[in-house]
Amino acid sequence: MSEPARSGSTSALVIGLALLTLVAAAASLIIGRDGGGPTFGFGGPALAETIVREIRLPRTLLALLVGGTLGLCGAALQGLLRNPLAEPGLLGASSGAAFGAVLVFYFGFAGASSLLLPAGAVGGSLLALAALYALAGRRGDFLTIVLAGIAINALAAALTSLALNFAPSPYAALEILFWMLGSLADRSLAHVYLAVPLMVPGWLLVAAAARGLDALTLGEDTAFSLGFDPKRTQALVIGGTALAVGGAVAVTGVVGFVGLVVPHLLRRSVGQHPSRLLLPSFLGGALLTTLADVAIRLLPPGPELKLGVVTALLGAPFFLHLVMRNPERAA
Amino acid sequence: MTLAAVNVEVSYEARPAVRATTLALLPGELIALVGPNGAGKSTLLRALAGLVGYRGTVTWQGAALAQLDGRTRARTVAYLPQDPPVHWPLAARELVALGRLPHRAYGANENSVDAAAVTAAMRETDTLEFAGRSVSRLSVGERARVLLARALAVEAPVLLADEPIAMLDPYHQLDVLDTLRAYAAGREAGSKRLVVVVLHDLGLAARFCDRVLLMDGGAIVGDGPPDEALGAEAIRAHYRVEPFIARHEGEPLIVPWRSINGRRD
Fold it and tell me: What CA–CA distance (Å, rounded) separates A16 from B100?
């Protein structure tokens, strides 16, 4: 494995990632769809300003916020469950949120108010969390939580399929499907304002668990004897993830695998420390998601690829690779 | 400065694991907790560490441990489980430094006191040479010593260690018991500590420990200096072995010689 990383090299990593993220964000503001490019070609500076402010700025901010959330929560969940295959989707938070959104679609409210859809997603994610707590919160051991997460995921997927099955019209079904693919296109600052009040408290809760995650490296008994009750660490990480990921899914749909890939790529460069992985994973998630969203815009004209499709296409083989290479870890 | 257990009882699903136990343990002593498999040694240790629910009270300097906040309790009682997991392949030194978590504020980096404690703990466990190596690349015995160093690095006045020498070669078994005895005596004058260690090697328990607690069937059935607690009669009655007991270089030598057939009542 890697040499021990001292805090010095962790700060270097954080600064490097932060600079790269800034560059990617700038590129995201400049690069447009359909050959928009930095000069816009027509319409003059007033239109250019409008495009940047109304279209690209929300999109860029959301890529940063959602990507950061997924990276951070992925790293925290991996630390909590002590398994590099953990991911926000594992908890059922993502699929629960997706189901909540689908319900809103199903009843045809999505057109009524742009706020209703996110509200449904947050509700679904909180519902999934409540179910998780009811099933596994008392028992408190981590295997139970993983199994409960799988069960909730399956239930949410089944209910979503049910809603699709009974979709009032083909258009509604199509709308539901497109939502579930995950995208940053056509979002406004209103979406940013909706997501931030959910994400920031979520981040803070997760960050408060940092030292508890380090202590869990040596198992639950040692963590407790070091003064970090595993139940508290668990509540912080799960509660924070539900809030932040619920907010993220609310505005972008399901964007998978960022929370899996990013912590894995960075783990060795922080010397395997669960707590030192959090901030770099936040930045790495923001960076990766922004780059993926820019890449989508650089593709030839045609129907725009959905962000969730891109991350799944890249992430699923990576996940498979992890499982194949690490069979004992996958258990 | 006493760790006192008063009427401590632990039950697992109505089956008593530790029967009403009252003890007063004093700093400066290396105390062996011995007994046959299933006697309740680990459960008693876990109760003292607050890891299992119990009836009765456990106090340190008169304050109930269960009432302390987590950080204060962690700085008071260090606990080393039997063969604990290591979930991430940290470098050995980083793992030992986890023992300083109860001393560090959120976000604070390791200070010179922490660094000194980590280095001292690693020196005492003979693990400095692989400080930078990943624990996934250590042998079982090397890893066990690194984990012991983690517990020593807490520098708590009470250390509870569950079979810390089970995985070690003879050299390191002797070395670790010397270390624990020195830790109990205090690195500097006036810093005496209390160490309770679960052991299966009766000979080493008799040689190295100041006091032996013999458990059987969830109760303390012998308590005193090794010569008293580990007499031939007690070993026969509770371990069902015929011991060979002698002295070598003025120290007791106990070897379990032959199992005594016949079922226990």
Answer: 29
Q: Which residues of B have a CB under 8 Å from any CB of A?
A: 46, 49-51, 69-75, 77-81, 84-91, 93-95, 98-99, 101-102, 104, 106, 109, 132, 134, 136-137, 147, 150, 154
ipTM score assigned to the predicted complex: 0.94
The number of domains in chain B is: 1
CATH number at residue B89: 3.40.50.300
The answer to whether the beta carbons of residues A25 and A2 sit under 8 Å apart is: no
Residue A7 has pLDDT above 70, yes or no: no
pLDDT digits (tens, 9 = 90+) for A265-289: 999 999 999 999 999 999 999 999 9
Going across the sheet that includes B3-12, the strands are: B15-25, B3-12, B55-60, B63-64
pLDDT in tens, A127-146: 887 787 777 765 556 677 77
The answer to whether position B264 is within a domain reads no
What integer pLDDT is reported at residue A108 of this predicted model?
A: 66
What is the DSSP annotation of B105-119? Answer: PTTPPP-HHHHHHHH
Q: 3-state DSSP call for residue A287? A: helix
Under 8 Å between Cβ of A65 and A255: no
The answer to whether position B265 is within a domain reads no
Least confident of A13-22, A130-139, A217-226, B40-49: A130-139
Closest-CA residue in chain A for B99? A226
CATH of domain A60-298+306-330: 1.10.3470.10
The shortest CB-CB distance from A221 to any of B84, B95, B106 is to B84
Print the domain residue range for B178: 3-259
Rounded to 10 deg, the angle between the A142-165 and A116-132 helix axes is 140
